[in-house]
Amino acid sequence: MIDKLLCWLRHRQAPVPDALWNVVIAALPFLQALNKDEQLRLRRLAEGFLAEKEFTAVGELELSDAICVSIAAQGCLPILELGLDYYRGWVGVIVYADEFIIPRSVEDEFGIVHEYQELASGEAWDGGPLLISWRDAQMAGSGYNVVIHEFAHKLDMRNGEANGIPPLPAQLSPSHWQQVLDTAYDDFCARVDASADSAQEMLFDPYASENPGEFFAVMSEAFFETPALLRTEYPALYAQLAGFYRQDPASRIFRKTAGRQP
């Protein structure tokens, strides 16, 4: 069964209700760290996003305004300082209740095409829709964020395939970005290999070792959810991401935490 919902905002061009917005923010600690001005700007971005995009639920999931707003709020965090134009060129957000199957095909060195099925929690298609598992989306808050992951892929795809090198602002050197990305990626892959031998738990999702595009997406998750950890482990990469996203989540969370001290 496919259930389509054009959220109330698309019908009425109305703001997100205060009660609903507050519930969404309260469930996501990395959004609670935003100051009042940042939360207001994020809310306006989310409203604009909801007005432009079409949400579709697949399977047994009943789409709700709460689901739409939660995905929009998380997805718009990376563009808080970039603007909604960064998400132009695509419309659909498809939400599954749980992980879903994606058919794949790969051609080997002999020209033989192998077809298989892959279980996924999210998928971003170049120029096409963004697919999200709602069960996984609800795991946000402790370093794993499928919404930010897939939206980071969308940003990466703005200049072609998702290869870890999105369109960079003028102040960031493409060659330096590539050097920092490659150095961090090689180190991370070595850590993944070492953890496989020692059964040591990884600080970041090992899926980041798949390729530089996945590394960028996973590290974007960490940048917004566990920024202090990322800044400690990969300071040069953190600095590049801060330059790209024009945000400093580690300092933001530190200020929020310090403000709660007696």
Automatic annotation (TrEMBL):
Listed PANTHER family: MTFA PEPTIDASE (PTHR30164), PROTEIN MTFA (PTHR30164:SF2)
Annotated TM spans: none
GO terms under cellular component: cytosol
Pfam family of the protein (one): Peptidase_M90
Protein name, as recorded: Mlc titration factor A
GO molecular function, one term: metallopeptidase activity
SUPFAM superfamilies: Metalloproteases ('zincins'), catalytic domain (SSF55486)
Gene3D superfamilies membership: Collagenase (Catalytic Domain) (3.40.390.10), Glucose-regulated metallo-peptidase M90, N-terminal domain (1.10.472.150)
